[in-house]
């Protein structure tokens, strides 16, 4: 698969360098979120007359076909691709021609990284919340069956007072209840700030509609400063230590 800088130099990189620079092994799981974000972006570009409606429709059809084929196994994600964003865009261009390249208009991969990661976390919060609820039900059931079972309570790593096993179990249930509250607050905060539109760093000169694109993806608001776009800030911190986000 061609690299972003292909054509700028005749040189090639060693396989080891490609492996270090690639994130496809990790971000391949984001393909559905990446495609959802790209569909919303294409619709916004058409809504703002930056591309035609016909071009947007072709892009959306192409993206939906890619998602369907990846999900079914008909299309295998190329392990040599630099990341899932470039893989999807490359396959799209192969399927619908140069129109596919318009999808990158007024958007950076930094946008996509921040958006995809945030959407993934939002969805995973729902899964974790459900699993915590199921675990709390098990704890409550076990506690109800062990109300008369006595065990030693500890302070300072020593026996302190007698407590019931039920009380011991429900202490953990209360901890998980607080965790559920924290997750709900985290999800609310993420939904309030769509990163789309910040682009590489300082926005774009195209007349985009960030609010419209954010609403298509379920966000209630947008990041008000283009440099305040988590996880971009954290990504730099990781890269400073030689790691990819």
User: What's the CATH architecture of the largest domain?
Assistant: Up-down Bundle
Helicity, in percent? 55-70%
SS-based class: mainly alpha
Q: What proportion of the residues form beta strands (DSSP E)? A: 5-15%
The biggest sheet amounts to: 2 strands, antiparallel
**CATH H-level homologous superfamily name of the largest domain:** Fumarase/aspartase (Central domain)
Kindly report the CATH topology of the largest domain: Fumarase C, Chain A, domain 2
Radius of gyration: 24 Å
Distance between the termini: 22 Å
Compressed to H and E, one letter per element, the order equals HHHHHHEEHHH
Going across the major beta sheet, what is the strand order?
1-2
Number of domains: 2
Count of helical stretches: 9
Mean pLDDT: 85
What is the overall shape? elongated
- Low-confidence runs of at least 5 consecutive residues: 232-245
Q: How many runs of DSSP E, i.e. beta strands?
A: 2
CATH class of the largest domain: Mainly Alpha
């Amino acid at each position: 698969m061609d690299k972003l800088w292909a054509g700028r130099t005749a040189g090639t990189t060693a396989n080891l360098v490609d492996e270090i620079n690639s994130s496809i092994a990790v971000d391949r799981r984001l393909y559905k979120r990446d495609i959802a974000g790209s569909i919303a972006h294409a619709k916004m570009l058409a809504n703002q007359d930056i591309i035609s409606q016909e071009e947007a429709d072709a892009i959306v059809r192409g993206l939906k076909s890619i998602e369907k084929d990846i999900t079914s196994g008909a299309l295998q994600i190329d392990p040599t691709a630099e990341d899932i964003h470039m893989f999807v865009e490359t396959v799209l261009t192969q399927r619908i021609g140069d129109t596919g390249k318009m999808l990158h208009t007024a958007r950076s991969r930094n946008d996509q990284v921040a958006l995809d990661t945030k959407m993934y976390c939002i969805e995973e919060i729902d899964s974790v919340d459900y699993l915590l609820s199921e675990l709390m039900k098990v704890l409550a059931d076990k506690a109800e069956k062990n109300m008369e079972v006595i065990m030693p309570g500890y302070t300072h790593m020593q026996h302190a007072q007698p407590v019931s096993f039920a009380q011991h179990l429900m202490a953990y249930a209360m901890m998980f209840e607080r965790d559920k509250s924290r997750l709900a607050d985290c999800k609310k905060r993420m939904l309030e700030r769509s990163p789309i539109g910040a682009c590489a760093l300082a926005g774009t000169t195209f007349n985009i509609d960030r609010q419209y694109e954010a609403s298509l993806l379920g966000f209630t608001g947008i990041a008000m400063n283009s440099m305040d776009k988590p996880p971009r800030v954290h990504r730099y911190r990781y890269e400073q230590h030689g790691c990819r986000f």
